[in-house]
Q: What sequence folds into this?
């Protein structure tokens, strides 16, 4: 296991270098240098501000030196200062917004598993039943539906027409005057729609995948053996088959991390949730390059971490992986 | 072989429905200037945010423009973005996949590590970051969506090439003196086109969804050019008074994407019935 872990960590090094190169290339995509754009956008930008930017990206030096210096800064998490009027450290700005984004993503992942696994298993076990067909239709619609549109419709239904749920922010205006338990209820109410919607996209793919997995496992010899030795169908399905069908799911969970993080831009913008996605959107709109680059980099690193976590838990759960590698 | 394909395709009801949706969309966008009842950009301040009526079948928007006409013209954007973005993704993906699978060894490792790195980026983040640096225009969007969507195709084509490159017909081509480029593009690639075609059909659906999300956020197709995504932005701004601005464009996206997905899956099943679960 230790050997596997070390090997797996080593494979991350080239990927991490690749990520930094792509980020670096993206920074230099801007026509002219980033400083030109900065001064163009804010005519007040002083010579001093321009020099600060030159220093941040070392634009006066040759490209390879620029890259190495940038890496050196990255290593100490020095992502520079935001272009916005507060001029705060990019790291601080991201750090304060990360928890709510991670909270929503973790909650939607739990929701995805809790709904998609039973959905997939039941439609596999009762293949071609009415339930299976209904699930298939749900999956196709789920793949095709623009989730931001679904968000709008649910906002109209639950927020505007029924008035059950709040449609923006994570707290009510008079939040501070609520008793503690009421504050929790308030937070939960604000999170229901965002979590539901960010889970929705993954739900379709995941239940489809679960169904295919389960169908594959049920065909295996050891399932026939389990049946032949007289185990009840319950035990065969929920103990012998399900365990094996769940294994590859770990990998898929890891792979779904970038989709969830990317989706947070849309949901946080629609529901005005002060998370990393909304910060990214606002920074893109105001061309706050240091923040955009910082979030791009951190988003990729988070994905890398998600994949690592998935691979390691897979290896922990399945001895075949550890031994054969 | 070909007749088998069409036989299986036409027996698959869902695939035929998908095909009909896609063909009708082509027709609508080609005939936009004839079938749209109004000029999509004609502003009418007296008729702002009118609900659907016999005059304006799908109502009017915040500037009094006819929503149906804007949606008909918007279908052109979706079609254009879907095809150009997917075309770019296929070009990049197929060439890289072919080279990786054919040459193997270090060429393969370099290309596949590049694919792994690209897959680490949440694609929506990468697209937004690039659009933030460039100008949000329809061409930039198509290019960026294409350049962030080729990785899956590379993997497919590479896998096909690895299984095909040692086959007898490739050896035969080599023996009669065909060069690498000829073997790759004339002999092996045509045999790998089936999986590419399926991935492309599904890719068009994905590109249409991405474009609509970008336009919805105001970073995609810029007004006044009508696109389904930016009509939805108006829907969000008038969420409590004009439900029709939110409902219909989204429905159009849903049906379009569903159509491409059904068509793609139908083509896959018809090409190789064994692939069917």
A:
């Amino acid at each position: 296991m230790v050997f596997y872990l070390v090997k797996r960590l080593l494979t991350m090094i080239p990927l991490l270098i690749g990520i930094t190169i792509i980020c670096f290339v993206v920074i230099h995509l801007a026509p002219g240098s980033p400083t030109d754009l900065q001064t163009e956008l804010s005519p007040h930008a002083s010579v001093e501000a321009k020099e600060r930017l030159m220093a941040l990206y070392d634009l006066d030096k040759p490209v390879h030196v620029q890259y190495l210096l940038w890496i050196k800064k990255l290593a100490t998490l020095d992502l520079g200062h935001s272009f916005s009027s507060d001029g705060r450290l990019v790291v601080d700005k991201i750090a304060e917004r990360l928890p709510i984004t991670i909270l929503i993503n973790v909650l939607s992942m739990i929701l995805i598993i809790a709904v998609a696994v039973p959905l997939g298993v039941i439609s596999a076990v009762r293949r071609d039943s009415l339930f299976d067909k209904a699930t298939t239709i749900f999956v196709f619609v789920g793949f095709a539906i623009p989730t931001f549109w679904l968000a709008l419709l649910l906002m109209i239904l639950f927020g505007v027409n029924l008035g059950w749920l709040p449609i923006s922010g994570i707290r009510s205006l008079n939040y501070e005057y609520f008793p503690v338990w009421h504050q929790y209820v308030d937070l939960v109410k604000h999170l229901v729609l965002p979590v539901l919607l960010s889970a929705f996209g993954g739900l379709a793919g995941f239940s489809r995948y679960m169904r295919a997995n389960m169908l594959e496992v049920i065909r295996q010899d050891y399932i026939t053996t389990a049946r032949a030795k007289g185990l009840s169908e319950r035990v065969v399905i929920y103990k012998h088959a399900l365990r094996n069908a769940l294994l590859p799911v770990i990998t898929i969970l890891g792979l779904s991390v970038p989709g969830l993080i990317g989706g947070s831009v849309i949901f946080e913008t629609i529901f005005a949730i002060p998370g990393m996605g909304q910060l990214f959107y606002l920074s893109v709109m105001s061309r706050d390059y240091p923040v955009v680059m910082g979030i791009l980099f951190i988003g990729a690193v988070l994905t890398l971490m998600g994949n690592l976590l998935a691979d390691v838990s897979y290896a922990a759960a399945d001895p075949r992986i550890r031994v054969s590698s | 072989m070909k007749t088998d394909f069409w036989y299986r395709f036409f027996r698959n009801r869902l695939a035929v429905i998908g095909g009909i949706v896609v063909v009708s969309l082509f027709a609508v966008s080609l005939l936009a200037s004839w079938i749209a009842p109004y000029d999509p950009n004609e502003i009418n301040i007296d008729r702002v945010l009118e609900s659907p009526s016999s005059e304006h079948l799908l109502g009017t928007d915040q500037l009094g423009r006819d929503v149906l006409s804007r949606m008909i013209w918007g279908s052109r954007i979706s079609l254009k973005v879907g095809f150009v973005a997917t075309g770019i993704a296929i070009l990049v993906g197929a060439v890289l996949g072919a080279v990786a699978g054919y040459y193997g060894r270090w060429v393969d490792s370099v290309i596949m590590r590049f694919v792994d790195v690209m897959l680490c980026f949440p694609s929506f983040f990468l697209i937004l970051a690039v659009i933030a640096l460039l100008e949000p225009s329809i061409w930039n969007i198509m290019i960026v969506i294409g350049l962030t969507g080729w990785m899956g195709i590379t993997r497919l084509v590479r896998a096909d090439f690895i299984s095909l490159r040692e086959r007898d017909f490739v050896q035969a081509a080599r023996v009669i003196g065909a060069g690498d480029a000829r073997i790759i593009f004339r002999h092996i690639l045509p045999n790998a086109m089936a999986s590419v075609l399926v991935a492309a059909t599904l890719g068009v659906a994905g590109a249409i969804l991405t474009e609509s999300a970008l336009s919805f956020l105001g970073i995609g197709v810029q007004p006044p050019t009508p696109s389904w995504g930016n009509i939805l932005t108006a829907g969000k701004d008038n969420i409590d008074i004009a439900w029709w601005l939110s409902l219909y464009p989204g429905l159009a996206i849903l049906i379009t994407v569903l159509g491409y997905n059904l068509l793609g899956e139908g083509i896959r099943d018809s090409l190789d019935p064994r692939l069917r679960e």
